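Late entry, evening session. Most of the bench is empty. Finally got around to the prediction I had been postponing all week. Sequence below, unchanged from the version circulated by S.P.
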Amino acid sequence: MNELTAIAQHHDAIGKVLDQYIKGAMSGKGDDMKPAFHADATVFGYVGDNLLAGPIQELFSWNDENGPATMLEVKQTSIDLADSVATARLELINWTGLRFTDLFTLLNVDGQWKIMNKVFHLHV
């Protein structure tokens, strides 16, 4: 396999991980997005003046309480790959009336891409 083919395959695999995250957002079920994340993943960002920081379960719980985002529009703006690590950026419009910019760090763990960290900005 040549290097360009390998890069394309990694980009596709990362895209599928991000799709799993989006599926969970749209369903409003944390369990639907959970497979996209490593068990030890973390989340950070401000909701108003309050810092949301901690284990990724915080995101899953918020998603469960927030409910389905059936009208969600998603724009994947970037994936940057460096062998076993990557970053990705999503713009999420109308997540139940909210707009977010999400930045992810990903790690290839035992041959599978997993989100290790989500940092977000909630647009006012």
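Two things to note before I forget:
The chain has a mean pLDDT of 96.
Residues 3-123 form a domain with the Nuclear Transport Factor 2; Chain: A, fold (CATH 3.10.450.50).
Will write this up properly tomorrow.
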